[in-house]
Specification:
The protein is an alpha+beta fold and 140 residues long. The chain has helices spanning 31-39, 41-52, 57-63, 69-81, 103-121, 123-138, and strands at 6-8, 11-13, 55-56, 85-90, 96-101.
Length: 140
């Protein structure tokens, strides 16, 4: 059963979408919020980390440098709600929770990872452009 389906009396039900088809350029389009979740500072880094493997919370926090416990928890919860992250809580003592990507989460992670790599590879060009821009503004 896909994330968008619900089970009603043992049957899969795909909820009907209300309104016009998604268009991220429309101010009221719900795809904007999903895009914001996936491309947020921490969303990108969490998705990228989970491309490697599943992580426990504390491992993921160490992997994603600079994220606070609160922000990581919020990001994981948001990505889980959107269907990108799977939270696997094992009934053991002490509790063990693992986070991994769902199939749609893997797709999203691969997309943002490609953009991340591109930014890393073009960083020198960005710095050069900034210098040119700042120099032109200062000379006016």
């Amino acid at each position: 059963m896909s994330v968008s389906e619900k089970s009603v009396a043992g049957h899969s039900v795909v909820p009907e979408r209300l309104g016009p088809p998604p268009n991220v350029n429309r101010a009221e389009c719900p795809s904007r919020l999903v895009l914001e979740h996936v491309t947020s500072r921490w969303g990108v880094l969490v998705l990228a980390a989970l491309l490697e493997r599943s992580y426990r919370f504390s491992e993921l926090r160490r992997q994603v440098g600079g994220v606070s416990e609160k922000m990581l928890a919020q990001t994981l919860q948001t990505l889980e709600r959107d269907g990108f992250v799977h939270r696997d809580a094992k009934p053991v003592i002490p509790p063990r929770v693992d986070y991994s990507l769902t199939p749609i989460g893997r797709e999203a992670a691969e997309q943002v990872w490609a953009l991340t790599r591109w930014v890393e590879n073009r960083l020198d060009d960005v710095f050069t452009a900034r210098e040119v821009y700042d120099g032109a503004r200062e000379s006016h």
